[in-house]
Specification:
Distance between the termini of chain B: 37 Å
Number of helices of chain B: 0
Helix content of chain A: under 10%
Radius of gyration of chain B: 13 Å
Shape of chain B: globular
Structural class of chain A: mainly beta
Order of helices and strands of chain B: EEEEEEEEEEE
Radius of gyration of chain A: 13 Å
Shape of chain A: globular
Oligomer: heterodimer
Largest sheet of chain B: 6 strands, mixed
Largest sheet of chain A: 7 strands, mixed
Chain lengths: ~110, ~110
């Protein structure tokens, strides 16, 4: 069974630009969560999607948004990039969310210059 | 304000000895806790979890202990192996929901 895949793996953008990251969950998984990892803050929860609906949201500004498609693939968008958005963005999928085991993708390393 | 804390950024242990990683939380509403291991350039992988109704859960070399009154949990790895060298994250969930709150991580180095 293929694992969680994220594209692209690396991305370099400049301040003010916007970026879209993609996540393909494990087949059959309907819950997709997004996390931001930075050296200073560790792993922080961004949001979770289930059946194309945002079910839970972390404490991030509105510049961070996402969506989920009918095939459970998810995208995350960050608009008006700031230097502080440089981070590793991780996607995790699980069958239905909650305490179901989450499987993480390798992440997208975003650098904002 | 961090709700889940891992106060040791790093830990070094000799191969074969016990590794003890600690995690403290502030919110008594957390009712499920998990440990993840992360290697460089890879996403975290689930290790072991514990419900707040238990005080211990064991899986092979990994045991997690929960002390609810102290709002403290720990992960014991016995015996430690060089392949255990990674960053370990403690995570907590509230109301068995989907919002995982992660600690900042502890980098474990197991020395041969």
């Amino acid at each position: 069974k293929a694992g969680v895949t994220q594209t692209p793996r690396y991305l370099i953008k400049t301040r003010g630009q916007q970026v879209t990251l993609s996540c393909s969950p494990i087949s059959g998984h309907r819950s997709v969560s997004w996390y931001q990892q930075t050296p200073g803050q560790g792993l922080q929860f961004l949001f979770e999607y289930f059946s194309e609906t945002q079910r839970n949201k972390g404490n991030f500004p509105g510049r961070f948004s996402g969506r989920q498609f009918s095939n459970s693939r998810s995208e995350m968008n960050v608009s008006t990039l700031e230097l502080g958005d440089s981070a590793l963005y991780l996607c995790a999928s699980s069958l239905t969310g909650g305490v179901d085991e989450q499987f993480f993708g390798p992440g997208t390393r975003l650098t904002v210059l | 304000d961090q709700q889940v804390k891992q106060n040791s950024p790093s830990l070094s242990v000799q191969e074969g000895r016990i590794s003890i990683l600690n995690c403290d939380y502030t919110n008594s509403m957390f009712d499920y806790f998990l440990w993840y291991k992360k290697y460089p350039a890879e996403g975290p992988t689930f290790l072991i979890s514990i419900s707040s109704i238990k005080d211990k859960n064991e899986d092979g070399r990994f045991t997690v202990f929960l002390n609810k009154s102290a709002k403290h949990l720990s992960l014991h790895i016995v015996p430690s192996q060089p392949g255990d060298s990674a960053v370990y994250f403690c995570a907590a969930i509230m109301n068995y929901g989907q919002n995982f709150v992660f600690g900042p991580g502890t980098r474990l180095s197991v020395l041969p």
